[in-house]
Structure formats: structure tokens, C-alpha cells
Queue: 3 jobs
Job 1
Amino acid sequence: MFDEYGFPGAEGSGHAEQTLEMFVYCSRAAEGVDDAEVGRIITFSQARNVARGITGVLVFGSGVFFQWVEGPPAEVEILIADLHRDTRHFDIVTLDRGIEKRERLYPNWEMELVEAEDIRAVLQDALDSAEDENNAAALKRILAHIDSAPLPLLGRG
Ligand SMILES: Cc1cc2nc3c(=O)[nH]c(=O)nc-3n(C[C@H](O)[C@H](O)[C@H](O)COP(=O)(O)O)c2cc1C
């Protein structure tokens, strides 16, 4: 599905090791950003991410976003700059970021919207099926972060 540079192609599969940049962050939704606006973000993102070889998950709950993005480093860096300019969210906190040769965690998700109460299970599933040591290590760090600061609490105040 994706070639060794992370782009979709005829050869290879989504499970092959690729040079990928991972960017994981949380942020607070701006005033007026509701489920309908999040729906528009998802529709836009799915169309654009597929063209850029980017996959991942977006969680929205209690006014807080949590997003896992993975893809070719050059494309992910453009997206990171776009995200920092986007006024629909603020207080972006990077939880994990790195360039590694590894498998995609979410090879079939152009950007999947996941309910906040399900994020722990989604990450735990990914950890349980992760064969890649770097992925497993990153997931353990993120699960520890979620357990130390539950997402609904991050959204208050
Ligand atoms: C929480 C959140 C997640 C987003 N995720 C993506 C994404 O996965 N892919 C994407 O292309 N744009 C995403 N966007 C939209 C970008 O921030 C930006 O608006 C979009 O890339 C268009 O940027 P441009 O108009 O400056 O080119 C997201 C926005 C928000 C607020």
C-alpha cells in the first residue's frame, strides 16, 4: 500500500518498515469548535492525508484534541506547521515526535476520529499488536501520559 518512503504505491504493504515521522500532541479546541467543525476537519484531513501518505487518529472530547500523525517526514513537517497556524486549536503540547524506520501503527486510517473514552483502548490495541520496538516504546510513554493526566481533566478550566 505504501512504498519505503511512506507513499502509497503498487508495491509493498502497509506493514512494511518505512522511514516515518511520528507526531503526537494534544491541544485545546478554540471557542466555537463543535462536533460539526471537527467533522469538517476530518473530511478535509482524510482527503489531504491520503494524497500525502499520512495516516493516524484524532480524538476529540471535553474540548481537547489528541492526535497521532505518521507519514513521510517532509509531509508530516508541512502538516505540523499547518497545525501550529490553525486557530481552531491552541496550547499545542507535543507528546512525542521522532523519525524512525518502522511500521505504520494505523496503515489503513487516513485520519480516523475516535471517541475520547475509546482512546485508551485504541492505543492499548495498537500496543498489543505492535511488533516494532520503537512503536511499543512510544505507545507505552503515551499510555503512561494518559494515565497520569486523563484527557477529560486536561479540558477543564
Ligand atoms: C485538531 C486538528 C487536526 C487536524 N488534522 C489534520 C490532518 O490530519 N491533516 C491535514 O491535512 N490537516 C489537518 N488539520 C487542518 C490543518 O491544521 C490545516 O488547516 C490544513 O492543513 C490546511 O492548511 P492550509 O490552509 O494552511 O494549507 C487539522 C486541524 C486541526 C484543528
Job 2
Amino acid sequence: MTNHEHVEESCAEALAQVQAFLHNELPVSDADLIRAHLNACEKCLENFDVEALISRMLRRSCSSPPAPANLRVRLTALRVTYRLDDH
Ligand SMILES: [Zn+2]
């Protein structure tokens, strides 16, 4: 499927910029592209959540591992925030 390959290429580009997106380092136009792709691509949305969690964890502390329950709550909160923000 050539179409599938094209999609995966977009995914790679989107994910490559996710960190900058999370840190608000992207211009608004680029951030909108990432946001639009994440909104349309469930695979990337999952990856985005993971990246966001990792980013937040690294910012707070490298030494204390988060509890699984905590992770799940944060993941849900992230998704809700993201969807509300997008609409
Ligand atoms: Zn994608």
C-alpha cells in the first residue's frame, strides 16, 4: 500500500516535532500542522501522549518512577485537555 507508506512518513515528521510542540517552540503554523495530524491519526495521538508524559516526567524528576495509576490518570487528562483545546 503506497498510501500507507505516505501516512507513515507524515507520522515520522509529526513525531519528530512533538517535543518542540510540547515545549511551545514551534511557530503557530507548524504547531497547527502537528495538532491537525495528531487529531487525525490515532497512532500518533498515542505516541504524542507517551511523549508528553515522558517530557513532564523528565522536567519534574528523573529519580521517582510514577505509579501506574498516576500514569493512567494523566493520560486521560491529557486526552481530554487535547480534545477540548482542539475544538
Ligand atoms: Zn500519524
Job 3
Amino acid sequence: MEIVSYRKYYKTRFGEMYFGKCEDVLLDYLSRPDFKPINLLFTSPPFPLNRAKRYGNMTGKDYLEWIGMLGPIFKRLLATDGSIVFELGNAWEPGVPAHSTLPIEALLELKKSGDFSLCQEFIYYNPAKLPSPIEWVNKRRIRVKDSFTRLWWLSNSPYPKANNHNVKEEYSQQMKKLIKSGKYNSGKRPSEYVIGESSFSKNNGGAIPSNVLIASNTNSKDDYLRYCKDNELEIHPARMPKEIVGFFIKFLTDENDLILDPFAGSNTTGNEAEKLKRQWMSIEASENYIKGSIGRFQSAQLL
Ligand SMILES: C[S@@+](CC[C@H](N)C(=O)[O-])C[C@H]1O[C@@H](n2cnc3c(N)ncnc32)[C@H](O)[C@@H]1O
């Protein structure tokens, strides 16, 4: 029989970080008497590259099989009105200027194996992203920069807990003026749609955000980076911007709900959950990244 090992590494007021493979930790968690369903599983799994990368990414069919194995586990973990939001980076076919369809196949595999509903697709646009793949974009100039990735929102039903009031954005100057004047150019649009006064000039306390989220990781002075540099720890190369994590936590959960990141890396998810007073559980297979992630918290207790 395979010997499975993992351990809790540190805890904070709201959460716990586990060191090990998420498959092992989660199967065990499901059978624990203190099991509590997950309200939001937010994560960026290892990317489906067609070539092996530093943290042991699987390729092609193996990746799809592995994702297919995770679907039913995630399903059992999730609260009936819970959500999964996961980011999958882009991938290219090796040696040719052709986009891989593996990330899309991975989405379909996860959706099918967990029998999930696809609630919505999000784009995470990073304007500061460096040009890649270098060969096709910079050298031969036959492709343009890949500057967004997709986040997929899945759930057990098409009606998971969600409230876009919690993620309202500041109104544009134009909208602020409109609300002040109370005058809206109401009436029939070319589409035959009739727009009433009240629906558009009413102050709802902020604008409804779109599914294109813009963020970049250009801040070189945050606590995490400083801590890693001071302690000579490896900085995680694929950190999720905290604004993106925070957006989904506010949109899809309430205070004290439980948030899981099974591929936590530098634990951006746990840290945002902590700030927003949500309970969290994070899992990471690389001890180096866990050591660095401690720098995100003011009072992490080593276990
Ligand atoms: C894309 S990174 C996540 C980065 C994270 N969102 C952040 O903001 O730092 C994926 C992480 O999954 C970890 N990983 C890979 N396979 C794993 C597994 N089976 N269980 C747990 N973690 C794993 C890798 O070490 C890597 O740190």
C-alpha cells in the first residue's frame, strides 16, 4: 500500500496551511469527523504545459487524467451552493506557433468529471505581462503577446451563492454626472430595447463589474517579497494578484465561510481570506514555497 504523508505546517487566526499533495490531504479531510464543506475553492493548478516544467507539471493525456481524477473529489468537498474558480494559463504546442487546446480540454474534463455547471468565464488581463512565447512574438514577429488567462467559475448548480453588490466598482465620471443630474436619455434603442429612466440614473452605490479583470503583479515592495529576500527564500514565479483573489472571495462568500486553495503556492488565497475574515485551508506540495508564504502573515504559528 502506498504510504501517504502530509502535515500541517502553520496556522493563523482563520486558517491552516498543509504541506503535501492535495490529493492526499483532501481525501483524508473528506473522511474526518470535523469535515466542513467548502464554500469557495479558488486555485491556479499547475499549468497544463506540453513540456515538463520546474514544479513537475504533467503533460498531455496524463494531465487530463489527473484533472479528471480531481473532479469527483472537488464535488464531494463543495457545499451545495459553493463555487470553484480556477485559473488555467495558456499553453503552446512545442516548437510550433500553435496554441494548445489542452487548457480548454482540462476545463471540459473537470466540468464533466465533477458534473459541474459552468457559471461564467472570466478574463484576467495583465497589461504588464512580458511578451511570450519569445520565439514567435519577439524574434519572428508572427504572433502577438499573450496577455490574458482565463478563470472558470464552476458550481454544483447554476445558482451558487453570489452577490455582485459585494464587488461594486466606483462609478465613471460620466455616470456620476448622470446620477447627479437625474437625466438619462431614455427610450427605444436601435435594438428595440426600451430603456427606462429609473434603471440607469439610479444610484446603486457603484457600478456592476465586468468579467474582464485587470491586474498585474508589478509591486516589488510587498511584505511577501521582502520576507523572501530577507530570508533568502525562493519567490514563487506564478503568484496570483491579490485583487483577483479578493474579488472572488467577496463576490462568492460571506464572512466565516471556508475557502480552499489546493495548489496554494505562496498562499495569496489564504492571505486574502484572512484579511476578509473567511476561514481558509491551503495545501502546497513544495516546502520552499510554504516557507516563503509565512511572510504574508503577521502571526503565523508554526506547527
Ligand atoms: C500556479 S502555482 C499557484 C500559485 C498561487 N496561486 C500563488 O498565488 O502563489 C501551482 C502550485 O501548485 C503546487 N503543486 C503542484 N502539484 C501539487 C499537488 N499535487 N498538491 C499540492 N500542490 C501542488 C506547485 O508547487 C505550485 O506552487
